[in-house]
Amino acid sequence: MLKSTGMPETSIYSDRKTFAAAILAAGLLAAGLAGCRGEKTRVVARAGSIQITVDDLAGELDNAPAAYQNYLSTVEGKKQFLDILLREKILMNSAERSGIARRNKEIQKNLRDYRKRAREKEIEFRNGLIVREYLRELKDKDLRVTDEEIRKYFDENKDVFERPVKVTASHILSPTQEAAEAVLRRVKKGEDFARVAREISTDPSASRGGMIGEVSKGDLAELPEFEGNLFSLKSGQVSGIVKTKLGYHIIKKTGEIRLPKQSFEQAAPQIHRMIEKRKFDEWIQRTKKEQKVFIDEQVLASVPVPVSEDPSGEELVP
């Protein structure tokens, strides 16, 4: 136990870095840190074969809390701090000599788990770096969008930018044509669209009654059939069965918001993103063929998925 010094009592570990940092503030190590290699290796304290050098202490320093500066400027304060470090080193040295690291199964298990997690983190970090830098290269090559492409898209879609709108919508996603036909019959008979969506839809938006929020033209470029049907509807109108790569949809347009006219300069960043995304999707499809991607549908269907008590989440519609 530490002597009463006007500071709270502490364990031999909890304030080690705090005390070390405060010693730097008090000036104990200032000369050592600024000096040559010889100064850094000077021994501050030793106990048998154990020694603490100026460099050892410097490696522990983070900050210099003002609350400890006055106390640690005293000889007693410096001794107390060094005693904390010595206790830790003595304890660690004794533990190593005891062979507990070799004979204790809990230590071995925890070390294996730690190494596994560390390796997984390293792989994840490495993959992230590689993908990020490769995407930068792709954007300058395969995904490069020219000013001419942006201007051409703007000129060919002037009505979208001169009379821009956002629509709000809901949908019900079914896995088969037959299931979608049954849904459509129920909706046409006057059943509440949101209630049917909550009951039937296989899309995560089912928990919100099928609502997918606000959509602008181009937002659903990956699902052209869905987007085309949605924007052709009048507010309150329900579509027929719309087939996309996700399945079979019944779409309801719930509202429309008129937006201010956009100039070419205003629209250019949005057009750039749309063209770049389209090029990326095309690149993915080409690369899938080159890499001969294969999916075993039967194995995929057998993979168990945890069932959440709260099925809310983002809808599959991009």
Major β-sheet strand ordering: 4-3-6-5
Biggest sheet architecture: 4 strands, antiparallel
Inertia-based shape: elongated
Low-confidence stretches: 1-14, 22-36
Q: State the distance separating the first and last CA atoms.
A: 61 Å
Topology-level CATH name of the domain at 165-259: Chitinase A, domain 3
Report mean pLDDT, rounded to a whole number: 82
Q: Could you say which structural class the secondary elements and strand pairing correspond to?
A: alpha+beta
Number of H- or I-type helical stretches: 15
Give the oligomeric state: single chain
Rg (C-alpha, Å): 33 Å
Judging by the overall fold, what is the CATH architecture of the domain at 165-259? Answer: Roll
Beta-strand residue fraction: 5-15%
Give a written overview of the molecule.
Among the domains are: 16-98, no CATH class; 165-259, Chitinase A, domain 3 (Roll). With 318 residues, it is of the alpha+beta class. Residues 1-14 and 22-36 have low confidence and may be disordered. The relative contact order is 0.09. The chain is built from 15 helices and six strands. The chain has a four-stranded antiparallel sheet with strand order 4-3-6-5. It has a two-stranded antiparallel ribbon with strand order 1-2. The longest helix has 36 residues, at 105-140.
